[in-house]
Design a protein that fits this description.
Blueprint lengths: L1 H4 L3 H14 L1 H17 L1 E3 L5 E3 L11 H42 L13 E6 L2 E5 L5 H20 L19
Antiparallel strand pairs: 1-2, 3-4
Helix pairs in contact: 2-3, 3-4, 4-5
């Protein structure tokens, strides 16, 4: 975090400590996920996505350098295990939302005509870029909002609030 944000190690650790203090239940759950990954060799996301890890084993004749490599790999697996449920949840949400948008653009029929002339252009992590003629922007925007909220409620129910933001522009831009 320090390197990515161009801040000191101490400041980065302070941010992490404050986050863990505020979100202690989430932090504990993520830590347990990391422990399970090392013990079981895999993690599972909320919607059933598995991620497998090649957990290094300790050997009796391990050199100090080999031990450092092994511990570095274990730390990496723990970070991946904490990230996995979040990323797999986002992927499941995006897939469900896009599938529903596709149907809504076709009046509920997968093989129906595209009544809004809306086309998927790009998928970037948790974003969907859609192209549509000016006359259809308003209904396409509302479909995108409704389908995103529907997918979130389907996956996460009332666990957390989910704000949906749709930007309209003549080109792709990151807000």
């Amino acid at each position: 975090m320090a390197e990515r944000r161009n801040i000191s190690e101490e400041k980065a650790q302070d941010i992490i400590d404050k986050y863990k203090a505020k979100a202690h239940v989430l932090s504990k759950w993520l830590d347990q996920n990391a422990t399970n990954a090392i013990h079981d060799g895999y993690t599972t996301g909320e919607s059933g996505h598995y991620r497998f890890y090649q957990v290094p084993t300790i050997t009796s004749d391990e050199t100090e350098e080999e031990m450092e490599v092994r511990l570095s790999r274990v730390d990496s697996i723990k970070r991946q295990a904490k990230n996995h449920p979040i990323q797999s949840g986002c992927a499941s949400l995006l897939k469900s939302a896009v599938a529903r948008m596709y149907l809504e653009f076709r009046n509920g029929k997968s093989s129906g005509p595209n009544i809004y002339d809306a086309h998927f252009m790009l998928f970037v992590h948790d974003e969907v870029v859609v192209s549509a003629p000016d006359k259809h922007v308003a209904p396409v925007k509302q479909i995108m909002i409704d389908c995103s909220k529907w997918a979130f409620e389907k996956l996460w129910r009332d666990v957390v609030d989910f704000p949906v933001k749709v930007s309209v522009a003549g080109y792709y831009k990151k807000d």
